[in-house]
């Protein structure tokens, strides 16, 4: 079955309740999967395409978050990041014949995702990267491979219960994210940081009243500090995570879409979810329907 808007929000709420109850979305619980790597992959791509080039190179650079437990997280002693986004990266790389140990992972924060793609710093961005018309006007975004919704993270003793309660309050998020604009529209005073970890610290020490971003990201932080933090309010946006690619490589769209579709059909998407966000105990949702490439 395919995702609808209301279903996406139901799943987001379900994820919220399950993770809040289990409180274990931290990086330590996230697993990694073995993905089947295609043989002679370069043969199936046309000359002159980005896919052929990458397959022949045998390596790919993928931008992911390093500070989002369950989605994209790399601890100080970890060799590679873990989470649902890196798992999606492994699935795409495997289709090019590139094994996980030949992927170069590059830390990407919200504000540098478009510049990294435009300047060729990375081949793909898979970093809780919502598909928007503004972004699609300057970079490529294929997907969505996951749908979540924006919520609030507050201290456990906070009275904030509904989105109306944030009017006039200090709410932090990350510069370059969709989240800051959304809370501004709700009447909050937006406070922008480079990373979510900085923003969480401000909530914990009481400098700001709440942090806001996608529910799936907030739950990872709440799970790490279950006595001090909680996730509140029904999701008030729909965030459709896409895979970013260079605007100079439009041929990547159909390849990404076909590879994601195959992963949704052959169980690789389910496995990736179960090993990462699903470690909280939440039921694996239906994978979302993919947009057509222009
Ligand atoms: N998904 C939202 C965005 O792409 C918020 C999360 C993030 O910044 O990574 O802007």
Note down, in words, how this protein is organized:
Helix 6 (178-185) links the parallel strand 8 and strand 9. The protein is an alpha/beta fold and 294 residues long. The protein folds into 2 domains: 13-29 and 38-148 and 240-280, D-Maltodextrin-Binding Protein, domain 2 (3-Layer(aba) Sandwich), CATH 3.40.190.10; 150-232, Periplasmic binding protein-like II (D-Maltodextrin-Binding Protein, domain 2, 3-Layer(aba) Sandwich), CATH 3.40.190. The protein starts with a helix and ends in a 19-residue tail after the last helix. The protein is built from 10 helices and 12 strands. It has helices spanning 5-22, 50-57, 84-95, 113-118, 133-136, 178-185, 196-204, 215-224, 252-266, 268-275; strands spanning 60-64, 67-68, 72-73, 103-107, 124-125, 140-148, 150-155, 170-174, 189-193, 210-214, 229-232, 239-245. It binds glutamic acid.
Mind sketching the topology for me?
Elements (H helix, E strand, L loop, with lengths): L4 H18 L27 H8 L2 E5 L2 E2 L3 E2 L10 H12 L7 E5 L5 H6 L5 E2 L7 H4 L3 E9 L1 E6 L14 E5 L3 H8 L3 E5 L2 H9 L5 E5 H10 L4 E4 L6 E7 L6 H15 L1 H8 L19
Parallel strand pairs: 1-4, 1-5, 8-9, 8-10
Antiparallel strand pairs: 2-3, 5-12, 6-12, 7-10, 7-11
The structure holds glutamic acid (GLU).
């Amino acid at each position: 079955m395919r995702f609808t808007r209301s279903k996406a929000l139901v799943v987001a709420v379900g994820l919220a309740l399950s993770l809040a109850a289990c409180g274990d979305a931290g990086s330590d619980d996230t697993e990694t999967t073995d993905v089947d790597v295609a043989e002679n992959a370069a043969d199936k791509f046309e000359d002159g395409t980005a896919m052929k080039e990458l397959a022949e190179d045998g390596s790919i650079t993928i931008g992911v978050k390093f500070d989002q437990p369950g989605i994209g997280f790399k601890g100080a002693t970890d060799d590679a990041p873990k989470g649902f986004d890196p798992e999606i990266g492994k699935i795409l790389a495997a289709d090019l014949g590139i094994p996980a140990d030949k992927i170069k992972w590059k830390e990407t924060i919200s504000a540098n995702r478009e510049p990294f793609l435009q300047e060729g710093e990375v081949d793909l961005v898979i970093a809780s990267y919502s598909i928007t018309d503004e972004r699609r006007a300057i970079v490529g975004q294929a997907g969505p491979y996951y749908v979540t919704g924006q919520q609030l993270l507050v201290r456990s003793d906070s009275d904030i219960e509904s989105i109306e309660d944030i009017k006039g309050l200090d709410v932090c998020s990350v510069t370059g994210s969709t989240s800051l604009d959304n809370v501004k529209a709700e009447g909050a005073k937006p406070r922008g940081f480079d990373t979510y970890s900085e923003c969480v610290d401000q909530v914990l020490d009481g400098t700001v009243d709440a942090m806001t971003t996608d529910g799936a990201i907030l739950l990872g932080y709440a799970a790490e500090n279950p006595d001090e933090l909680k996730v509140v309010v029904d999701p008030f946006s729909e965030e459709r995570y896409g895979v970013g690619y260079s605007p100079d490589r439009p041929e990547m769209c159909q390849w990404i879409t076909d590879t994601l579709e195959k992963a949704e059909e052959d169980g690789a998407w389910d496995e990736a979810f179960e090993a990462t966000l699903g470690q909280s105990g939440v039921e694996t949702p239906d994978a979302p329907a993919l947009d057509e490439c222009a």
